[in-house]
C-alpha cells in the first residue's frame, strides 16, 4: 500500500468525518434516522462552488454552506414536528427537494473549481514553507478536532443533555419539562449544518461540486459510526465522537483499497456505492457491533436482547 | 391544589374497541394531601394520572393545578408542577446516560442553558442525595443507568421526580414490578421523601393493605368512575374485607343498571 493512498484516506476520512459526526448526532444521539443528509452534503458543496466560482471568499462560502445546512435540517424538523410526518418521510422529502434546490443554486449539474482560490490556498499563503500535501491533512485535522471539541462541549451542556435524553427516553424527558420538538429541531439543524460544512470542504478539496455527489452520504456516515463503535467500546461522549472520526478514516481507507486493488476482481469506480453497502452489512453482522449501535439500525427483535454498553 | 371537573376520556371513539376510560371524574385535592388510588385492571387509574400530567389531553372537562387552568397545557409545560414515577423502572430514566447525567436532567424543569451540566459542586450534591438512599449509588455516579437493577433505577427515578420539589407527585404502582424486598425499601424511601418535603401525592397501588395504611384518603375507581372516596375516621375503621364487599356490591348494582338499560 502506497503512502499517497494512506494520506488520501486520512484526508478524506477527516473531511467526511465532519459529515459522520452529523450523522452520529441524528442516528445515535437523537435516534432519528435522518435521510436529508444525502441532500445537505451536496447543498454545502453547491453553495460553496457557486460563491467561490463567482469570486467570493472561501470563508464566506463556508459560512453560507453551514447556514444552508442548518436550514435544510430545520425543514426536516418542520416536516416532522409541525406536520407530524414520520422521521423517514421527513428526511426523504427534504433530500428530494434539495436535489432541485442544488441544481438551481449551481445553474448546471457540475461546477469545476480548478484554478479558483479555495480555503486551502488561503491557508497555504499563511504557511508558505509547507507543501500542499502536508498542509491539507493538517488543516482538515484542525477543523475536525475543533468541531469535535465544540460538539463534545455542547452535548455536555444542559441543553445538550436534554437532546441526548430525547433520543434515549422521550417520555421521561417530556415529564422533566423539555419540549422535545425543540430538542429535535436543534439536533437536526446542527447535524445538517455539519454535513453541509463537510460538503463545502470536500468541494474545495476535490475541486468541483456535482449535483449527484450526495448519493450514499447516509450510508458512508452510518458505516463510519458503526466501524468506530465496533473499535472503541467506551460510551462516553468524548470517546464516541473520537470513534466516529476514526471510523470515518478506516471506512475511506477500506473503500480506497477496494477501488485501487479491486480491478483484479473486476471492480469499477461505479461500484463504490455497492462496496460501501457491503461494508456496512459486513460490519453489522458482527454480533459485538450490534449491541453497541442503537436499536435504530437493527430491527426490534434482534436488538431487544442486547443492551447498550 | 388540584381540581378536576367532569373529566372525560375515551379511546378509539366510534370503533368497536371504544373504551370510556374516564367518565366524568370530579376530584379535589388539598395541599399536602396523600391520596391512594385502588381499582381493578382497566379501571382508568393510569389514565387519570396521564390526564393530570398532560401525557394525554381530556376530551371534556377541566383541570386546575395550583389555581392555574392547565387543561390544554402540554406535558412539558406542566412539568414544573409535577413529579412522576411509573410502574416500569425503564420509563423513568435515560438508560444510555450515566447516573449523574440523569440527575442533571432533573434539577431544572425549564430554562436549561448552555452551561455545562456537571461540575464538582453538583456532583457533590448528587453524591449526598444518593447516599441518603442507602443503595450504594453514590459510588456509581459515572455508571450507565442501563447497568442498574430495577430497584436501583426506581430509586433514582424517585430522586429525580422529587429533586425539584414538585407541587404534585404522581406514583403509578411504582413498586409493583419489583421483588418484595426491594419493593419495601423503595416504598420506605418514597414515604420518607414525601414526608420530608410535604409533597401532595397521588399513589396508585394494587395492594389494598398499603392503600389503607399509607396516606390520608383512599379512592376506589371502577370503569372510569370514582366509586368510593373515604378519608378520616371512616377510613381508619375500614377493613380490606369491607372494601372488597363494597366493591362487589357497587359492581353488582351497576350490572343491574346496565341490564335495565339493555332490557
Ligand atoms: N393509549 C390507549 N389507547 C387505547 N386504550 C387505552 C389507552 N390507554 C388505556 N386504554 C384503555 O383504557 C382503559 C383504562 O386503562 P388504564 O391504563 O387507565 O387502567 P388502569 O386502571 O391503570 O389499569 P391497570 O391496573 O391494569 O394498570 C383500559 O381499558 C385500557 O385498555
Ligand atoms: Mg395502570
Write the layout of secondary structure elements.
The complex is a heterodimer of chains A (309) and B (263).
Chain A: H1 3-29, H2 37-53, H3 58-82, H4 87-106, E1 110-112, H5 119-126, H6 132-156, H7 158-168, H8 170-175, H9 180-206, E2 208-210, H10 217-231, H11 237-261, H12 272-285, H13 287-292, H14 300-303
Antiparallel strand pairs in A: 1-2
Chain B: E1 2-11, E2 19-29, E3 34-39, H1 45-53, E4 60-65, E5 68-69, H2 75-78, E6 82-85, H3 99-107, H4 120-133, H5 150-162, E7 168-172, H6 180-197, E8 200-204, H7 208-213, E9 217-222, E10 225-231, H8 232-236, H9 240-262
Parallel strand pairs in B: 3-8, 3-9, 6-7, 7-8
Antiparallel strand pairs in B: 1-2, 1-4, 4-5, 9-10
The structure holds adenosine-5'-triphosphate and magnesium ion (MG).
Provide structural commentary:
- The complex is a heterodimer of chains A (309) and B (263).
- Chain A has 309 residues and is mostly helical.
- Chain A has a single domain (3-303), classed as ABC transporter involved in vitamin B12 uptake, BtuC (Orthogonal Bundle), CATH 1.10.3470.
- Chain A has 14 helices and two strands.
- In chain A, strands 1-2 form a two-stranded antiparallel sheet.
- In chain A, helix 1 runs parallel beside helix 6 (132-156) and helix 2 (37-53) runs antiparallel to helix 3 (58-82).
- Mean pLDDT of chain A is 91; it is low at 301-309.
- With 263 residues, chain B is α/β, with parallel strands linked by helices.
- Chain B has a single domain, classed as P-loop containing nucleotide triphosphate hydrolases (Rossmann fold, 3-Layer(aba) Sandwich), CATH 3.40.50.300.
- Chain B has nine helices and ten strands.
- In chain B, helix 3 runs parallel beside helix 5 and helix 5 runs parallel beside helix 6.
- The longest helix of chain B has 23 residues, at 240-262.
- The radius of gyration of chain B is 20 Å and the shape is globular.
- The model of chain B has no long low-confidence stretch (mean pLDDT 92).
- The chains are: A mainly alpha (309), B alpha/beta (263).
- Chain A binds chain B through residues 153-154, 156-162, 164-165, 168-169, 171-180, 235, 294, 307-309, and chain B through 53, 55, 74-77, 79-80, 82, 84, 91-97, 101, 104-106, 108-110, 112-118, 144, 146, 160.
- The structure holds adenosine-5'-triphosphate (ATP) and magnesium ion.
- Residues 45-46, 172 of chain B line the site of magnesium ion.
Amino acid at each position: 500500500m502506497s503512502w499517497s493512498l494512506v494520506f488520501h484516506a486520512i484526508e478524506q476520512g477527516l473531511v467526511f468525518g465532519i459529515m459522520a459526526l452529523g450523522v452520529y448526532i441524528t442516528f445515535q444521539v437523537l435516534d432519528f434516522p435522518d435521510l436529508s443528509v444525502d441532500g445537505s452534503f451536496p447543498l454545502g458543496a453547491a453553495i460553496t462552488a457557486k460563491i467561490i466560482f463567482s469570486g467570493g471568499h472561501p470563508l464566506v462560502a463556508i459560512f453560507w454552506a453551514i447556514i444552508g445546512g442548518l436550514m435544510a435540517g430545520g425543514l426536516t424538523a418542520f416536516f416532522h414536528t409541525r406536520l407530524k410526518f414520520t422521521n423517514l418521510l421527513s428526511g426523504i422529502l427534504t433530500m428530494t427537494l434539495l436535489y432541485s434546490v442544488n441544481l438551481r443554486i449551481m445553474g448546471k449539474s457540475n461546477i469545476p473549481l480548478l484554478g479558483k482560490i479555495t480555503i486551502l490556498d488561503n491557508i497555504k499563503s499563511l504557511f508558505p514553507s509547507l507543501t500542499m500535501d502536508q498542509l491539507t491533512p493538517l488543516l482538515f485535522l484542525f477543523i475536525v478536532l475543533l468541531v469535535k471539541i465544540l460538539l463534545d462541549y455542547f452535548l455536555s451542556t444542559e441543553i445538550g443533555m436534554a437532546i441526548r435524553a430525547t433520543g434515549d427516553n422521550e417520555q421521561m424527558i417530556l415529564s422533566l419539562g423539555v419540549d422535545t420538538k425543540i430538542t429535535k429541531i436543534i439536533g437536526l439543524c446542527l447535524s445538517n449544518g455539519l454535513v453541509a460544512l463537510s460538503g463545502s470542504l470536500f468541494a474545495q478539496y476535490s475541486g468541483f461540486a456535482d449535483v449527484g455527489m450526495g448519493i450514499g452520504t447516509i450510508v458512508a456516515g452510518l458505516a463510519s459510526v458503526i466501524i468506530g463503535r465496533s473499535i472503541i467500546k467506551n460510551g462516553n461522549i468524548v470517546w464516541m465522537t473520537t470513534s466516529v472520526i476514526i471510523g470515518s478514516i478506516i471506512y475511506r481507507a477500506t473503500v480506497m483499497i477496494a477501488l485501487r486493488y479491486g480491478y483484479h476482481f473486476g471492480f469499477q469506480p461505479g461500484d463504490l456505492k455497492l462496496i460501501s453497502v457491503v461494508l456496512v452489512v459486513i460490519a453489522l453482522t458482527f454480533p459485538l457491533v450490534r449491541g453497541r449501535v442503537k436499536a435504530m439500525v437493527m430491527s426490534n427483535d434482534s436488538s431487544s436482547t442486547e443492551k447498550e454498553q | 391544589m388540584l381540581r378536576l371537573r367532569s373529566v372525560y376520556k375515551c379511546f378509539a371513539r366510534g370503533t368497536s374497541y371504544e373504551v370510556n376510560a374516564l367518565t366524568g371524574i370530579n376530584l379535589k385535592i388539598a395541599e399536602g394531601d396523600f391520596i391512594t388510588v385502588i381499582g381493578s385492571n382497566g379501571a382508568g387509574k393510569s389514565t387519570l394520572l396521564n390526564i393530570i400530567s398532560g401525557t394525554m389531553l381530556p376530551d371534556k372537562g377541566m383541570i386546575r393545578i395550583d389555581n392555574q387552568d392547565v387543561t390544554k397545557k402540554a406535558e412539558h409545560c406542566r412539568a414544573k408542577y409535577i413529579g412522576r414515577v411509573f410502574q416500569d423502572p425503564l420509563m423513568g430514566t435515560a438508560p444510555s446516560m450515566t447516573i449523574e447525567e440523569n440527575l442533571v436532567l432533573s434539577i431544572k424543569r425549564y430554562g436549561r442553558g448552555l452551561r455545562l451540566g456537571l461540575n464538582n459542586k453538583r456532583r457533590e450534591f448528587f453524591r449526598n442525595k444518593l447516599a441518603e438512599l442507602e443503595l450504594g449509588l453514590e459510588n456509581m455516579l459515572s455508571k450507565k443507568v442501563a447497568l442498574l437493577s430495577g430497584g436501583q433505577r426506581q430509586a433514582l427515578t424517585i430522586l429525580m421526580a422529587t429533586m425539584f420539589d414538585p407541587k404534585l407527585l404522581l406514583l403509578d404502582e411504582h413498586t409493583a414490578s419489583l421483588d418484595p424486598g426491594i419493593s419495601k425499601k423503595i416504598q420506605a424511601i418514597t414515604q420518607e421523601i414525601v414526608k420530608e418535603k410535604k409533597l401532595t401525592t397521588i399513589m396508585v397501588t394494587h395492594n389494598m393493605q398499603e392503600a389503607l395504611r399509607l396516606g390520608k384518603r383512599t379512592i376506589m375507581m371502577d370503569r372510569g368512575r370514582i366509586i368510593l372516596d373515604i378519608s378520616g375516621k371512616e377510613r381508619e375503621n375500614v377493613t380490606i374485607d369491607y372494601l372488597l364487599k363494597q366493591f362487589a356490591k357497587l359492581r353488582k348494582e351497576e350490572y343491574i343498571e346496565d341490564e335495565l338499560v339493555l332490557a
